[in-house]
Amino acid sequence: MTFLTLLTPMTAVAQTDLTNVVQFPDPIEYVANPDPNDSTCIREIERAKRDIENGKVAFSQPAGFLFGHLRYETELRQLCDKHGLVFRNDMRGCTVTQGQTQGCYGAYMNKTIIEKFGPDFKDKLHREADSIVLANATNDTLWYYECDERQRLPSETKRTSDYIPSIIVTDIEIKEKKSQKYGGWPFIDLSFIVETDGSISAYYLSQFVPVLDQNREYKDELVKLAIREIKDKYPLWVPAKIKGTPVRAYNNVRVYFEKK
């Protein structure tokens, strides 16, 4: 039998032919009786049992490349500590060997937590930690990627990138790298805060990419030009939101410069 990485409890994956549906085990049930040839899973279960014997029951959070980040991880760690739990990121690889199962450490810990605290305990702690973030958001400044909805321009229904239209310069002698197919002009990543009322403030440079060394001398001029452009053309944004509530958060835009 072949198993997928146990990122979430999964009961079935539909194929093109709906009459041929491949069944996958519930993670909690599987770690109670894993396949004897699934050495990856068995090692993870043994590691979980050793930790539990040493008094370390882990609140395990699946994580890997581009997934698993929690905006409320700090708050969740604090809540776990109150309940005598250890928060751990359960790192998953991008590839899985056939017949081997990742995530059994976390699944075994989940089984233990359910037995000790009940089936809804982890969900409740996730919600509580996230509610603390929202309660503190009036005094904190978040990043757009920590929010449910990113800041957007009033003309947009959703912002899906960092880009704004390129700025055309006439009196700054920047040069284009002709051999570069895309992005041959210098560019910057400019960050600023979008307040809950949509106004913007606190500009700062996140990154300057001159592309050609001779463009480095124009860095300060280009940054000033970009800030003026944002102030003049994009002074008002729809603020980021968490659970429908506007929050103060950093935004980022990428600004390319072109010489005409």
What attributes characterize this protein structure?
five-stranded mixed sheet; 11 strands; 260 residues; alpha/beta; elongated; two-stranded antiparallel ribbon; 6 helices; 2 domains; disordered N terminus
Ordered list of secondary-structure elements with their pairings:
Elements: E1 12-13, E2 22-23, H1 27-32, H2 39-53, E3 58-63, H3 73-82, E4 86-91, H4 104-117, H5 121-136, E5 142-143, E6 167-169, E7 187-194, E8 200-209, H6 219-233, E9 240-242, E10 245-247, E11 249-259
Parallel strand pairs: 3-4, 5-11, 6-11
Antiparallel strand pairs: 1-2, 7-8, 7-11, 9-10
Helix pairs in contact: 2-4, 3-5
Percent of residues in β-strands: 15-25%
- Characterize the largest beta sheet: strand count, sense, and whether it forms a barrel: 5 strands, mixed
The tally of helices reads 6
Distance between the termini: 63 Å
**What is the number of E strands?**
11
Can you give the helix content as a percent range? 25-40%
**Radius of gyration of CA atoms, rounded to a whole number:** 25 Å
In the residues, how many domains can be counted?
A: 2
List the secondary-structure elements in sequence, H or E. EEHHEHEHHEEEEHEEE
Structural class by secondary-structure content? alpha/beta
Report the principal-axis shape: elongated
Oligomer: single chain
